Amino acid sequence: MNHLYLSYPNPGGIFSNPVGYWVIVALAIVFTLFVLLTATAYTVWYERVLLGRFQRRPGPNRVGPLGLLQLAADGIKLATKESFAPAGVDPILYLVGPAVMVAAAFLAWAVIPVGIWWGFSYWISNINVGILFVFAVSSMNAYAILLGGWSSNNKYSLLGGMRAAAQLISYEVALGLSLVPIFIITGSLRLQDIANFSVHWGPYHGPIPLVIVAPLSFVIYMVAATAETNRTPFDLPEAEQELIGGYHTEYSGLKFTLYYLGEYLNMVTVSTLATLIFFAGWHPNAPWFPAFIPFVAKIVGFLFLYIWLRNTLPRLRYDMLMRLGWKVLLPLGMANVVVTAAVVVALTG
Amino acid sequence: MTDETERPARRNPLQDVAALAQGLRTTLAEVMRPVVTTQYPEEKSPRAERYRGRHYLRRYDNGLERCIGCELCAAACPVGCILVIAAENTEDHRVSPGERYAKVYEINMLRCIFCGYCEEACPVQAIVLGPEYELSDVSRERFIYTKDMLLEPNPAQQEPIVVR
Question: Which ipTM score applies to this complex?
Fold first, then answer.
C-alpha cells in the first residue's frame, strides 16, 4: 500500500490505519459527493446573483433568504419534469452522454486534495500522477458532449458537439503545456506537492504561490481552462443564439440536469486546480486560521473571475477560437516550457 | 482561411490586452452601482399623471353623478366596449343634474384598449381613466365592469378617489 506519504501530517492515523482506511475513504467519498453537489448548486446561485449585480439586477431573491433556496426549487422542477426524448435518437448513446459528463466531472475529485484544518488536508486517492489523472478524466467531457450532440438526431446538437470536440482537443494541448513548467519547477505531478511547494528565499522559508514564478503559465491555464469548460467567451458548443443550446438542445429533465451539473462542476474543478497549482492551495493557514478558509476563498475568487469574464467578453468567432488556440496559446506554451527549463537548469545546475 | 478577404491592419497585442482590461474595469464598476430593479408586487413604480388605466365614473361634490347618459362615450369607443342605457331623472329620484342619467353603465374590460377616447368624448368629464393597472381576473364574466364597480364613492360618505 503505497498510499502512505508520510511527509504529510497523519492525524489519528487517518491515512495509515489499514482497517479504518477504507471506511474513511468510503465516508470521504460520500461526504465529497455531498459537498460537491451543494457547492455546484451554490455556484449556480453565485453566478446568477453576480450576473444580476453586473447588470444592476438583484438576481434570484424570492425563494428562501437571499434566494438561497432557488436551486432547490429549480432542482425539484427539473427532477419532476417529463424526461422527453425526441424521435430518432440513439437510445443508448443518448443516455450515456450525460452520464459520462457527470461521472467524469466527479471522478476528477478523487485525486484533488482539499485543505481542511491547520496543516491538514485530505485527499481520497493519493496517486503520484494526480494532475495527469485530472486531465485524463476531464477530457472525457469531449466524449460526453460529442455523444450527446451526435445521438440527439438534431443538426444544432451535432454542430455543437462537433465544435466542442474540436475546441476541447485544441485547448487540451495548451492546458497541458501550460502546466509543464510547474512540473519542472516543483518536480512532482502530485497536486499536494505542487500546492505545498516551498522555497527558501533569504529570510523567507515556506510555501509560495507559483503564479509569481510562472505567470505566463497561469495566463495560458486560465484561457485554456475557460475554453475547456465551455465558458464565455469560448462557449461556442452551446452558443444559445446560433445553436439553440448546442449539444443539449434535445435534453430535458434529469438528463439536462446532469449536463448542467457536470458543466458547473467542471468550473469548480478548474478553479480548484488553479487554486492548488498557482495560488498555493490551502496556504497560509494557522491554528486559528483553518486551511479551508483560504482554500475556499481562493476558489470563490476564481469563480468570480469566470463570471466576470462571462459578463464582459462577447463570444469568439470559431476561426478566432482556433487561431487563439493553435497560433497563440500553443507557441506561447512551448516557449514557456523551454524558457522555464533553461532557467531552472541555470539556477539549480 | 479568410486570408483572401481584406483585413484591417493588425493591432498591437498590448492594445488588445488594454482593451480587455478596460472592458473588465467597466463591468466591475457596474457591480458597485446600486440595483435598479423595482421589486414589483411589494414596490410599484409611479404612474404618469395622465396614465390611462381602469375607468372611473365621477360624481359632483354634492354627490350627484356627472354622467347624463348621452352615450357619446359609447359612440366614440373604437371597439364598442361601453354599454349605456339611460333613464329620465324625476323630481323625487334625481341621480344626475341633467335630464337623464345612466341606468346601466357597463364596460367590457376584455375589449377595452385604453385609448381614452371615451374620456375625450364626455361633455361632463364623467368618465376618466385612472392610474390603476392591475386588472387581471379569473373569469370572462368578471371583466364586465358594472356601474357599481366604476362609480366612485359618494364624497358625502367617503374621501374621493384622487386621480393623480
Answer: 0.71
Asked if A56 lies within 8 A of B23 by C-beta distance, the reply is no
* Cβ–Cβ < 8 Å for B127, B67: yes
Distance between CA atoms of B46 and B131, rounded to whole angstroms? 9
Report CA-CA distances (Å) from A34 to A28, A39, A108, B93: 10, 8, 15, 77
Give residue A5's pLDDT: 44
For the cut 90, the answer to whether the pLDDT of residue A230 exceeds it is: no
**Residue contact B35–A308, C-beta within 8 A:** no
**CATH class (in words) of the domain with range B55-150:** alpha beta
Is pTM beyond 0.90? Reply is no
Q: How far apart are the first and last CA of chain B?
A: 64
How confident is the model over A288-299, as pLDDT tens digits?
A: 788 788 888 999
Scan for cell 386621480, then name that residue: B163
CB A160, CB A238: distance < 8 Å = yes
Q: Are B133 and B53 in contact (CB under 8 A)?
A: yes
- pLDDT beyond 70 at B75: yes
Which pLDDT tens digit goes with each residue over A56-79?
Answer: 888 888 887 888 888 888 888 888
Q: Which of residues 31-50 of B touch A (CB under 8 A)?
A: 31, 33-37, 39
Chain B residues near residue A313 by CB distance under 8 angstroms? 20, 23
Domain residue extents for chain B: 55-150
CB contact at 8 A, A73 and A226: no
Collapsed DSSP state (helix, strand, coil) of residue A139 = coil
Long-range pairs, A333-336, Cβ under 8 A, ≥24 = A333/A173, A333/A174, A333/A177, A333/A178, A333/A180, A333/A220, A334/A177, A336/A177, A336/A178, A336/A180, A336/A181, A336/A214, A336/A216, A336/A217, A336/A220
Does position B159 have pLDDT exceeding 80, yes or no? Answer: no
Contact (CB<8Å) A53/B31: yes
CA distance to A20, A68, A285, A291, per residue, from A14 (Å): 8, 34, 20, 17
Angle between helices A253-278 and A91-107 (to 10 degrees): 30
For residue A171, give the C-alpha cell: 485547448
C-alpha gyration radius of chain A: 21
Q: What is the pLDDT of residues A181-206, one digit of tens each?
A: 888 888 888 888 888 877 777 787 77
Place of cell 463570471: A307
**B26 lies within 8 A of chain A by CB:** yes
